[in-house]
Design brief:
This protein is mostly helical. It has 15 helices and no strands. About 3% of the residues have low confidence.
Length: 299
């Protein structure tokens, strides 16, 4: 059941993946991802796959684009194709990283751990500290979803120790989620504000939207409804602009909880229904069931 949003750290640029003959279309796709324009990234990536169906880079970029748009089953399809044709360790670690993330989004935590650990092993072998930090953070996310908060914190601290300043924001967000799970909301708010400051400074709007949604949901938990509504609105507006359907669903879920807590059952039902429908549309069954359960409890 989704209570707060984890941040994942991912590979965006792929050194060995963009081959010369296929560079332009595939590079366009990755550039659009970097610009957080996921619809155009998907269009470029699909065109690249149409022309070069066996291209590792093109299939990977389509998989990444579908993940960013919350369409996880489609993402897995293209990532598996990229994995099939990959030949280098640097390519494989990037693909494993993304496969772990998508399986996590689908609620398949066994496969998520499998691929996250594969990515970690390759990054250690390659001596890539930045990649290692990302992998540690993502493994911690999975343990957090599984309810092993102490194990999650252990991995987050390892990631924080070797991450750069920009990368720290995602880990701050995730540590805040742990404190929220422990009902230590003042600590959670402090860490979320640290994350927001970094993401605003670096223009990392994808993560910033997630920070806002988590902060709004945290304020809801302590019954500060005006602050909750403000931050949830900011997060939802950003996610609508970015086009991530799954995180729009999370925003609707949090609005449902907010209106439920305020005693407005009609609005709560409307937002829980919106959340359920959008989660179902992108294949996010765990969160669809969470929204359905919230709906049932309103009866």
């Amino acid at each position: 059941m989704r209570k707060f949003l984890f941040s994942v750290l991912v590979f965006v640029f792929f050194l060995g993946i963009i081959q010369t003959a296929k560079a332009d279309l595939t590079r366009d796709c990755f550039n659009y991802i970097d610009a957080q324009d996921y619809q155009r990234a998907l269009q470029s990536g699909l065109e690249a796959v149409r022309i070069y169906p066996n291209s590792v880079g093109a299939n990977l970029c389509v998989g990444v684009s579908y993940n960013r748009l919350g369409q996880y089953n489609q993402a897995i399809k293209y990532l598996k194709t990229a994995e099939k044709y990959a030949t280098s360790k640097s390519d494989l670690r990037a693909i494993y990283n993304w496969e772990g993330i998508v399986y996590e989004n689908l609620g398949d935590y066994n496969n998520a751990l499998l691929y996250a650990n594969r990515a970690l092993s390759l990054d250690i072998e390659l001596g890539d500290k930045d990649g290692e930090s990302k992998d540690l953070n993502n493994i911690a996310n999975i343990y957090q979803y599984l309810g092993d908060l102490d194990k999650a914190l252990e991995y987050y601290k390892k990631a924080l120790a070797i991450s750069d300043e920009k990368g720290k924001s995602a880990t701050y967000n995730n540590i805040a989620v742990i404190y929220s799970s422990k009902n230590e909301y003042d600590q959670a708010i402090d860490y979320l504000k640290k994350a927001i400051a970094i993401d605003q400074r670096f223009g990392n709007y994808d993560e910033l939207a997630k920070d806002f949604l988590n902060l709004g949901n945290t304020y809801r938990a302590i019954k500060n409804y005006s602050e909750a509504e403000y931050y949830l609105k900011q997060g939802l507006l950003m996610e609508e602009k970015l086009g991530n359907k799954d995180l729009q669903g999370a925003a609707y879920l949090y609005f449902g909880k907010l209106y439920r807590d305020k005693g407005n059952k009609a609005l709560a039902r409307e937002y829980f229904t919106k959340a359920y429908n959008i989660f179902k549309s992108v294949g996010d069954e765990p969160d669809a069931q969470a929204a359905y359960q919230d709906l049932q409890e309103l009866q």
